[in-house]
């Protein structure tokens, strides 16, 4: 049991899924953790991780018939896997989540059966890597109604023009799911753009202070020609896209929990070992206060996310459910990483102690997949019946 799992939530998983979670924990500890700090400092994604993930067999679990597990994993397992990976490093967890979640789920949910069979097996095996391109240089929270990237039908193909920003994995991805507004009907549609397509140019974003291992890109699309066969056949408007975002937003909340767990466990371990005034600082009341408040945030957030997973598994999952989880858990995450860094004192800003990485990466998780304000308005509308959107 994890130190942070005070109520033994992990025991809710059936034995076969718990074995997968433990396998992921060991994989992250032995294969990923040794690579993290060096590459975080350099701001580079270690490409050897792709091969290591390929051997782990962890990709494709949510998709029946495509992953090593073959049967679709429960939402509780996939959520706990996101937590477990983020507990080691948020950047690596995001690389995996973009590929295994956003990209694969877009194809699984929005593609035809032929498209699923064409792309998902290689993605589940991690022979091909995916990315998801929605956010734009001038469009974040308003991208639903203000998407500037366009698609124009030209015979048996589509011509894409525009730009995307903050696109994880895009510098090396084989398949990038690009969202664009159809000039004919003004509805958003999805396209799988394959690496090397003329006019598709991803440029790595430099100078980030969070998620430094993730290779986010700014993409320009200039006359990118995509065959109709690469248009996701079940995506006809942004309403269909919202179905995808609803699921992935819950995954980000699980990532926020992972950041809390990772930072708390580091702080607890440090407090037990660090001595001041002749004894471990874990014996000081004010340090215990920070640790207990952190554990309370973790335990409350974990319970919320378990029920969120049950709603997903039962098919009664709504936008406001994932929005409340994302807004609440990320706010609690901000508190925990600050308290954890505080326990480290001056050592808390040194990368070698890891907590500084969690502190920085938390800011990215707090902002993406819908800001706290946007998610608050989604929940506010649901509970009052009144829209407060501008």
From TrEMBL:
Which EC class heads this enzyme's classification?
Answer: oxidoreductase
Q: What UniProt keywords apply to this chain's record, in alphabetical order?
A: FAD, Flavoprotein, Oxidoreductase
* Keyword set includes Glycoprotein: no
Q: What is this protein called?
A: Glutaryl-CoA dehydrogenase
EC number(s) for this protein?
1.3.8.6
Family from the record = Belongs to the acyl-CoA dehydrogenase family.
In this protein, which residues make up the domain named Acyl-CoA dehydrogenase/oxidase C-terminal?
241-383
The reply on keyword GTP-binding is no
Q: What cofactor does its activity depend on?
A: FAD
Q: Give the source species.
A: Amycolatopsis magusensis
Which intervals hold domain Acyl-CoA dehydrogenase/oxidase N-terminal? 15-126
- Lineage, top-rank taxon, reads Bacteria
GO function terms (MF aspect): glutaryl-CoA dehydrogenase activity
Domain Acyl-CoA oxidase/dehydrogenase middle positions: 131-223
